[in-house]
Amino acid sequence: MLRISNHYISKVVFSLLFLEVLILIGSFYAGAGLRFFDGAAFVLPKLDHFFMSACVFAAAIVFSMSALGMYQINFKGGLRTPFFLQLMPSFVMGFCILTLVFYIAPDLYFGRGILVLVFAISGAGILLSRAMLLKTSETRFLESRIIFIGCGPLAKECGELALRPSNYRKYHVAGYVQVPSEESVVPAESLLAWEDGRSLVQLAHRNRVSEVVVSVQNRRGGTFPIKELLDCKLYGIKVTDAATFFERETCQIRVDSVQPSWLVFGGGFDQSFLRTFMKRAVDVVASLVLLVVTLPVMLITALAIFIEDRAPVFYAQERVGKDGHVFRVMKFRSMFTNAEKSGTPQWASKNDPRITRVGNIIRKLRIDELPQIVNVLKGEMSFVGPRPERPYFVDQLTQRVPYYNVRHSIKPGITGWAQVRYGYGDSVEDAVQKLQYDLYYVKNNSLFLDVLVLIDTFKVVVFRGGR
């Protein structure tokens, strides 16, 4: 895994993305050269912004491929059906994006003849790169061998996570090292014999492992092999804490196993002036653009709500924001006016009978969230962040869920990491799962992660009907 702006990115995905960007830009030059081939030499057209046009083309296609999930690689699925079902729509979407760009900036236009050749060459190049990746995945090149220190429930959970089918990485669990005083819950045949007189480094070398994951629940006492782990690190063997392993593999922070010291002394939690200023600037610009673009949609939505269930069209509800301050969030009303006639707040479920017909549509398309642009412009919310919850539920969850208030250290968002990674939550258990994603975002938030969330939000809304 690579870390870019504190976010974990698969080396496979990063390498594939880098290679395909080069292929797309190279295809642009190759297509232009072929289009103006005079029989003796390849002559590139004299365009003032030729390289910029190539970069715009590459960005449009990469965005379209990302939005259609083409970088969520499935090695078992092969290339045929899933690849072509995604590649062709990606090119169609990319063409639509390019058409819009050319309308806004006509100087970047490079002609239909070049465009046809560029799409053909880039399609062949992407097919070749994916074939190479699939072939590589059949070898042990992507496989990592690991040892788990510990054999209790935490170690077992880590081992199951490592063996879970993954799109990006393959693990081979060499075994578990039992720590004295810890009861074993893993299969006896998976325990590694640590012979007297031999070091952990020798055990790791004998099993050809490249990483040691420390998955001991209780590290107190003199039985924890801290010196042996230091020797492993000095000999080039990666040593990883269980909390970091979970964070890396699931993009969550596990509240049931994380230690407070790991949160305090670990990296992340960037709340610097520069980060805050950049986030606010992006929020204001993006909100104004979205307000102009979606104004016709909001007017139609308001009319549809009024026709079906009369006024009020908007719904203001108290939510908990940054530092625990309560504010009123604005939304299009998607439920009947007497949705909570009992006076007690209720969890919203996926097929909630209180939702109107218009409300069902605007919830799936996330149109009901658009009035929150006003909250963003007022500074109460951000574009990306943990979704704000109602005070009634916050009081309950703060008492029952560890670290719940950590999510209130930054502004809540219209969309968030938990929203694109997890479905609707209508219970405390769901709230815990969503909190673990929110904690990951709070710890690792950056402009890069915000962009990934917005791309995933676009994918959820347009291609999966929302969550």
From TrEMBL:
Its main location: membrane. The keyword GTP-binding does not apply. Residues 279-462 form the Bacterial sugar transferase domain. It is a multi-pass membrane protein. It comes from the Bacteria. It is found in: Membrane. GO terms for cellular component: membrane. Pfam families: Bac_transf. Keywords: Membrane, Transferase, Transmembrane, Transmembrane helix. The chain crosses the membrane at residues 12-30, 50-71, 83-104, 110-133, 284-307. Signal peptide: none annotated. The keyword Transferase applies. GO terms for molecular function: phosphotransferase activity, for other substituted phosphate groups. Belongs to the bacterial sugar transferase family. PANTHER family: COLANIC BIOSYNTHESIS UDP-GLUCOSE LIPID CARRIER TRANSFERASE (PTHR30576), UNDECAPRENYL-PHOSPHATE N-ACETYLGALACTOSAMINYL 1-PHOSPHATE TRANSFERASE-RELATED (PTHR30576:SF0). This is Glycosyl transferase.
